[in-house]
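Email to the structure team, subject: Putative aldouronate transport system permease protein model.

Hi all, the expression group asked for a predicted structure before they design truncation constructs. Nothing fancy, just the C-alpha coordinates so they can compare against earlier work. One-line instruction: predict Putative aldouronate transport system permease protein, return C-alpha coordinates.
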Amino acid sequence: MKQSRLYTVSIHSFFWLFTLASLLPFLFIFIISISSESSINAKGYSFFPSGISFAAYKFLFYDFTEILKAYGVTIFCTILGVILCLFITTLLAYPLSRMELPFRSSISFYIFFTMLFSGGMVPWYLTFTNIIPLKNTLLAMVIPGMLLSAFNVLLMRSFFMNSIPDSVVESAAIDGATEFKIFYKIIIPLSLPIIATIGLFSTLGFWNDWYNCMLFIDNPDLYNIQYLMTKSLTNIQFLLMKSNQSNQVGDILATMPTETVRMALAIIGLAPLLFAYPFFQKYYISGITTGAVKG
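Reply from the structure team: attached below.
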Protein backbone atom coordinates (compact mmCIF):
# COMPACT_ATOMS: atom_id res chain seq x y z
CA MET A 1 0.00 0.00 0.00
CA LYS A 2 2.77 2.39 0.95
CA GLN A 3 4.75 1.46 -2.16
CA SER A 4 1.73 2.08 -4.37
CA ARG A 5 1.12 5.45 -2.77
CA LEU A 6 4.80 6.37 -3.02
CA TYR A 7 4.78 5.40 -6.71
CA THR A 8 1.69 7.56 -7.37
CA VAL A 9 3.21 10.55 -5.56
CA SER A 10 6.47 10.13 -7.48
CA ILE A 11 4.70 10.00 -10.85
CA HIS A 12 2.55 13.03 -10.05
CA SER A 13 5.56 14.96 -8.79
CA PHE A 14 7.53 14.15 -11.93
CA PHE A 15 4.79 15.41 -14.24
CA TRP A 16 4.23 18.52 -12.12
CA LEU A 17 7.94 19.31 -12.36
CA PHE A 18 7.92 18.57 -16.08
CA THR A 19 4.95 20.93 -16.54
CA LEU A 20 6.65 23.69 -14.57
CA ALA A 21 9.84 23.20 -16.60
CA SER A 22 7.79 23.57 -19.80
CA LEU A 23 6.37 26.86 -18.54
CA LEU A 24 9.74 28.31 -17.57
CA PRO A 25 10.62 29.59 -21.10
CA PHE A 26 7.33 31.52 -21.29
CA LEU A 27 7.89 32.93 -17.81
CA PHE A 28 11.45 33.87 -18.74
CA ILE A 29 10.31 35.70 -21.88
CA PHE A 30 7.69 37.62 -19.87
CA ILE A 31 10.23 38.60 -17.20
CA ILE A 32 12.63 39.90 -19.84
CA SER A 33 9.82 41.88 -21.48
CA ILE A 34 9.16 43.76 -18.23
CA SER A 35 12.82 44.21 -17.26
CA SER A 36 14.51 47.59 -17.37
CA GLU A 37 17.34 48.43 -19.71
CA SER A 38 19.76 49.05 -16.88
CA SER A 39 19.19 45.63 -15.31
CA ILE A 40 19.73 43.85 -18.64
CA ASN A 41 22.91 45.83 -19.37
CA ALA A 42 24.25 45.24 -15.86
CA LYS A 43 23.29 41.61 -15.20
CA GLY A 44 22.09 40.22 -18.52
CA TYR A 45 19.05 38.00 -18.61
CA SER A 46 17.79 36.98 -15.21
CA PHE A 47 14.70 35.55 -13.57
CA PHE A 48 15.12 38.21 -10.88
CA PRO A 49 15.75 41.57 -12.59
CA SER A 50 16.78 44.47 -10.39
CA GLY A 51 14.51 46.87 -12.26
CA ILE A 52 10.96 46.49 -13.57
CA SER A 53 9.85 48.54 -16.56
CA PHE A 54 6.83 48.38 -18.87
CA ALA A 55 8.47 50.65 -21.45
CA ALA A 56 8.38 47.92 -24.11
CA TYR A 57 4.62 47.49 -23.81
CA LYS A 58 4.13 51.26 -23.72
CA PHE A 59 6.05 51.48 -26.98
CA LEU A 60 4.03 48.73 -28.64
CA PHE A 61 0.73 50.25 -27.57
CA TYR A 62 1.84 53.79 -28.41
CA ASP A 63 0.88 53.21 -32.04
CA PHE A 64 -1.03 49.93 -31.98
CA THR A 65 -2.41 50.26 -35.51
CA GLU A 66 0.11 47.98 -37.19
CA ILE A 67 -0.15 45.23 -34.57
CA LEU A 68 -3.95 45.42 -34.52
CA LYS A 69 -4.07 45.16 -38.31
CA ALA A 70 -1.68 42.20 -38.28
CA TYR A 71 -3.82 40.53 -35.62
CA GLY A 72 -6.86 40.98 -37.84
CA VAL A 73 -5.09 39.37 -40.80
CA THR A 74 -3.89 36.46 -38.66
CA ILE A 75 -7.30 35.84 -37.09
CA PHE A 76 -9.06 35.95 -40.46
CA CYS A 77 -6.56 33.62 -42.14
CA THR A 78 -6.54 31.24 -39.17
CA ILE A 79 -10.32 30.93 -38.97
CA LEU A 80 -10.77 30.53 -42.72
CA GLY A 81 -7.81 28.18 -43.02
CA VAL A 82 -8.91 25.93 -40.16
CA ILE A 83 -12.45 25.66 -41.54
CA LEU A 84 -11.21 24.76 -45.02
CA CYS A 85 -8.56 22.42 -43.64
CA LEU A 86 -11.08 20.50 -41.52
CA PHE A 87 -13.53 20.40 -44.43
CA ILE A 88 -10.96 18.93 -46.83
CA THR A 89 -9.40 16.59 -44.25
CA THR A 90 -12.70 15.05 -43.16
CA LEU A 91 -13.94 14.64 -46.73
CA LEU A 92 -10.70 12.87 -47.64
CA ALA A 93 -10.23 10.80 -44.48
CA TYR A 94 -13.75 9.39 -44.22
CA PRO A 95 -13.82 7.64 -47.64
CA LEU A 96 -10.36 6.24 -46.94
CA SER A 97 -11.73 4.65 -43.77
CA ARG A 98 -14.39 2.72 -45.70
CA MET A 99 -13.32 -0.75 -46.81
CA GLU A 100 -15.51 -0.63 -49.93
CA LEU A 101 -13.62 2.33 -51.45
CA PRO A 102 -11.84 1.22 -54.68
CA PHE A 103 -8.04 1.70 -54.67
CA ARG A 104 -8.20 2.63 -51.01
CA SER A 105 -4.71 1.31 -50.23
CA SER A 106 -3.14 3.01 -53.24
CA ILE A 107 -4.65 6.38 -52.36
CA SER A 108 -3.55 6.02 -48.74
CA PHE A 109 -0.01 5.19 -49.85
CA TYR A 110 0.05 8.22 -52.14
CA ILE A 111 -0.99 10.46 -49.23
CA PHE A 112 1.64 8.89 -47.00
CA PHE A 113 4.24 9.36 -49.74
CA THR A 114 3.75 13.13 -49.58
CA MET A 115 4.99 13.01 -45.98
CA LEU A 116 8.35 11.74 -47.23
CA PHE A 117 8.87 13.69 -50.46
CA SER A 118 7.64 16.97 -51.89
CA GLY A 119 7.69 18.59 -55.31
CA GLY A 120 10.32 21.13 -54.28
CA MET A 121 10.33 24.82 -53.48
CA VAL A 122 10.46 26.24 -57.02
CA PRO A 123 7.49 24.28 -58.48
CA TRP A 124 5.53 24.98 -55.30
CA TYR A 125 6.20 28.71 -55.51
CA LEU A 126 5.45 28.91 -59.24
CA THR A 127 2.15 27.08 -58.71
CA PHE A 128 0.87 29.70 -56.29
CA THR A 129 2.17 32.70 -58.19
CA ASN A 130 1.66 31.83 -61.88
CA ILE A 131 -0.90 29.04 -62.13
CA ILE A 132 -2.89 30.20 -59.09
CA PRO A 133 -2.22 33.96 -58.79
CA LEU A 134 -2.23 34.38 -55.02
CA LYS A 135 0.56 36.90 -54.59
CA ASN A 136 -0.38 39.83 -52.33
CA THR A 137 -3.73 38.30 -51.38
CA LEU A 138 -4.92 36.92 -48.05
CA LEU A 139 -5.59 33.58 -49.74
CA ALA A 140 -1.82 33.19 -50.13
CA MET A 141 -1.71 32.51 -46.39
CA VAL A 142 -4.67 30.11 -46.52
CA ILE A 143 -4.63 27.95 -49.65
CA PRO A 144 -1.01 26.64 -49.43
CA GLY A 145 -1.75 25.37 -45.93
CA MET A 146 -5.32 24.13 -46.28
CA LEU A 147 -4.11 20.53 -46.08
CA LEU A 148 -1.31 21.12 -43.61
CA SER A 149 0.03 17.57 -43.66
CA ALA A 150 -0.87 14.04 -44.64
CA PHE A 151 -0.44 13.17 -40.97
CA ASN A 152 -3.77 14.88 -40.21
CA VAL A 153 -5.55 12.80 -42.85
CA LEU A 154 -4.07 9.51 -41.64
CA LEU A 155 -4.81 10.37 -38.01
CA MET A 156 -8.43 11.16 -38.78
CA ARG A 157 -8.75 8.07 -40.98
CA SER A 158 -7.52 5.93 -38.08
CA PHE A 159 -10.09 7.52 -35.80
CA PHE A 160 -12.90 6.76 -38.23
CA MET A 161 -11.72 3.16 -38.60
CA ASN A 162 -11.16 2.44 -34.90
CA SER A 163 -13.78 4.51 -33.11
CA ILE A 164 -16.90 4.39 -35.27
CA PRO A 165 -18.35 0.88 -35.68
CA ASP A 166 -19.31 -0.23 -39.16
CA SER A 167 -22.66 -1.38 -37.77
CA VAL A 168 -23.64 2.24 -37.08
CA VAL A 169 -23.06 3.21 -40.71
CA GLU A 170 -24.71 0.05 -42.02
CA SER A 171 -27.82 0.51 -39.87
CA ALA A 172 -28.18 4.10 -41.06
CA ALA A 173 -27.85 2.94 -44.68
CA ILE A 174 -30.51 0.27 -44.13
CA ASP A 175 -32.84 2.95 -42.77
CA GLY A 176 -32.44 4.81 -46.06
CA ALA A 177 -29.91 7.48 -45.11
CA THR A 178 -27.75 8.78 -47.94
CA GLU A 179 -23.97 8.88 -47.71
CA PHE A 180 -24.04 12.64 -47.16
CA LYS A 181 -26.64 12.32 -44.40
CA ILE A 182 -24.65 9.56 -42.71
CA PHE A 183 -21.53 11.71 -42.84
CA TYR A 184 -23.25 14.88 -41.63
CA LYS A 185 -25.67 13.43 -39.05
CA ILE A 186 -23.65 10.51 -37.63
CA ILE A 187 -19.95 10.65 -38.47
CA ILE A 188 -19.32 14.33 -37.68
CA PRO A 189 -21.08 14.34 -34.25
CA LEU A 190 -19.21 11.19 -33.22
CA SER A 191 -15.88 12.63 -34.38
CA LEU A 192 -15.71 15.81 -32.30
CA PRO A 193 -12.55 14.68 -30.41
CA ILE A 194 -10.50 14.13 -33.55
CA ILE A 195 -11.96 17.21 -35.25
CA ALA A 196 -10.92 19.30 -32.25
CA THR A 197 -7.47 17.70 -32.32
CA ILE A 198 -6.90 18.39 -36.02
CA GLY A 199 -8.42 21.83 -35.50
CA LEU A 200 -5.83 22.56 -32.83
CA PHE A 201 -2.99 21.36 -35.08
CA SER A 202 -4.32 23.53 -37.90
CA THR A 203 -4.80 26.54 -35.65
CA LEU A 204 -1.19 26.33 -34.49
CA GLY A 205 -0.02 25.96 -38.08
CA PHE A 206 -1.94 28.92 -39.48
CA TRP A 207 -1.34 31.14 -36.46
CA ASN A 208 2.43 30.57 -36.45
CA ASP A 209 2.81 30.78 -40.23
CA TRP A 210 5.15 33.55 -41.31
CA TYR A 211 6.86 31.72 -44.16
CA ASN A 212 4.01 32.01 -46.66
CA CYS A 213 3.61 35.65 -45.78
CA MET A 214 7.30 36.23 -46.44
CA LEU A 215 7.10 34.50 -49.85
CA PHE A 216 3.84 35.85 -51.21
CA ILE A 217 3.11 39.15 -49.47
CA ASP A 218 4.81 42.46 -50.31
CA ASN A 219 2.04 44.75 -49.06
CA PRO A 220 2.67 45.75 -45.40
CA ASP A 221 -1.09 46.08 -44.88
CA LEU A 222 -1.42 42.31 -45.37
CA TYR A 223 1.34 41.21 -42.99
CA ASN A 224 0.22 38.78 -40.30
CA ILE A 225 1.30 39.01 -36.67
CA GLN A 226 4.00 36.34 -36.93
CA TYR A 227 5.69 37.93 -39.93
CA LEU A 228 5.41 41.34 -38.28
CA MET A 229 7.15 39.83 -35.26
CA THR A 230 9.80 38.22 -37.45
CA LYS A 231 10.66 41.49 -39.15
CA SER A 232 10.51 43.36 -35.87
CA LEU A 233 12.84 40.90 -34.17
CA THR A 234 15.52 41.75 -36.72
CA ASN A 235 14.76 45.44 -37.01
CA ILE A 236 12.69 47.32 -34.45
CA GLN A 237 12.63 50.33 -36.76
CA PHE A 238 10.19 48.43 -39.00
CA LEU A 239 7.41 49.35 -36.56
CA LEU A 240 7.95 53.04 -37.38
CA MET A 241 7.66 52.80 -41.16
CA LYS A 242 4.03 53.92 -41.36
CA SER A 243 3.81 55.84 -38.11
CA ASN A 244 2.59 59.43 -38.34
CA GLN A 245 4.45 60.24 -35.13
CA SER A 246 7.78 58.66 -35.98
CA ASN A 247 9.83 61.43 -34.35
CA GLN A 248 8.16 61.03 -30.96
CA VAL A 249 8.28 57.24 -31.14
CA GLY A 250 11.89 57.42 -32.26
CA ASP A 251 12.78 59.37 -29.11
CA ILE A 252 11.17 56.61 -27.03
CA LEU A 253 12.99 53.93 -29.01
CA ALA A 254 16.34 55.60 -28.44
CA THR A 255 16.01 55.09 -24.68
CA MET A 256 14.50 51.62 -24.87
CA PRO A 257 16.29 48.25 -24.75
CA THR A 258 15.75 46.36 -27.96
CA GLU A 259 15.47 42.95 -26.34
CA THR A 260 12.48 43.87 -24.17
CA VAL A 261 10.50 44.98 -27.23
CA ARG A 262 11.28 41.70 -28.95
CA MET A 263 10.17 39.67 -25.96
CA ALA A 264 7.04 41.78 -25.57
CA LEU A 265 6.18 41.05 -29.21
CA ALA A 266 6.64 37.34 -28.54
CA ILE A 267 4.26 37.53 -25.58
CA ILE A 268 1.65 39.35 -27.68
CA GLY A 269 1.92 36.71 -30.40
CA LEU A 270 1.74 33.74 -28.00
CA ALA A 271 -0.90 34.96 -25.57
CA PRO A 272 -4.03 34.03 -27.61
CA LEU A 273 -2.82 30.45 -28.12
CA LEU A 274 -1.95 30.04 -24.44
CA PHE A 275 -5.46 31.07 -23.46
CA ALA A 276 -7.14 28.99 -26.17
CA TYR A 277 -5.32 25.70 -25.58
CA PRO A 278 -7.08 24.72 -22.28
CA PHE A 279 -10.43 24.70 -24.10
CA PHE A 280 -9.07 22.18 -26.64
CA GLN A 281 -7.16 20.03 -24.15
CA LYS A 282 -9.96 17.58 -23.30
CA TYR A 283 -10.78 16.83 -26.95
CA TYR A 284 -7.09 16.92 -27.90
CA ILE A 285 -6.14 14.11 -25.50
CA SER A 286 -9.22 12.06 -26.39
CA GLY A 287 -8.61 12.40 -30.13
CA ILE A 288 -4.94 11.45 -29.92
CA THR A 289 -5.41 8.40 -27.70
CA THR A 290 -8.45 7.09 -29.55
CA GLY A 291 -7.14 7.66 -33.07
CA ALA A 292 -3.78 6.07 -32.36
CA VAL A 293 -5.01 2.66 -31.18
CA LYS A 294 -4.00 1.04 -34.44
CA GLY A 295 -3.02 2.21 -37.92
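Residues 55-291 form a domain with the MetI-like fold fold (CATH 1.10.3720.10). The chain has a mean pLDDT of 77. Ping us if the truncation boundaries need rechecking.
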